Amino acid sequence: MRRGGRTTSLQGVLFDWDGTLLDSYHADAQAYLAMFAAMGIDWDLGDLERHYSPDWYHVYRAAKLPREHWEEADRAWRKFYRRQKPVLLPGARSVLQELKLAYRLGLVTSGSRWRVLSQLRTFGLTRLFAARVCGGDTPQRKPHPGPLQAAMGRMGIEAHACVYVGDTPEDLEMARRAGVRAIAVLGPFPTRKQVRAERPEFLLKSIQELPRLLRRLEKSLVPKEWSGA
Known about the structure:
Layout: E1 2-3, E2 6-7, E3 12-15, E4 22-23, H1 25-38, H2 45-51, H3 56-62, H4 70-81, E5 87-88, H5 92-100, E6 104-112, H6 113-123, E7 131-135, H7 146-155, E8 162-166, H8 169-177, E9 181-185, H9 192-197, E10 203-204, H10 210-220, H11 223-227
Parallel strand pairs: 3-6, 3-8, 6-7, 8-9, 9-10
Antiparallel strand pairs: 1-2, 4-5
Helix pairs in contact: 1-4
């Protein structure tokens, strides 16, 4: 791929969705609390923040929700979430539009396909992504590298030519296990402390800092360094 008349080593930028591009924690949390109340579980926001994970079944287990009620809980969560109206994080749209001019973009999220694709359509972002891998599209979930590897396969891009941007420890681990350089961003979900504890190579306070970081990486890195990340 050529940018500004020169060959670059970076070809693809892949993103998490919730907390990285979408400011959805309030919507997510309100749906959880309403669902738990409907299921007779006495949880408040503090409980959710202490046990939050992008894998909602981890949250169910922490709340001691019996396995036979998980499908019912899923249906209730979807019902309550549809009442919410999450918004894009500040600068997310402009960052995606800028990066689309230079790189192929991908989306790898634990979010359910019905919800994520609906939100992409609502925000007019569907066409920006060359690949969209959602929760349930692969047999494995984050932090397994399978979802990220599936997206790279659809994009026709190798791991050394990609970066993955996410806001949870699971995002960072998935990228590392896939051989992809990880970029952490501090989002609205209660994962900021855990992300800092992972000591990521790159940590952004806002998604708006991403284009500048990528320009710096292109100037300082050579392909063999990417493959060893």
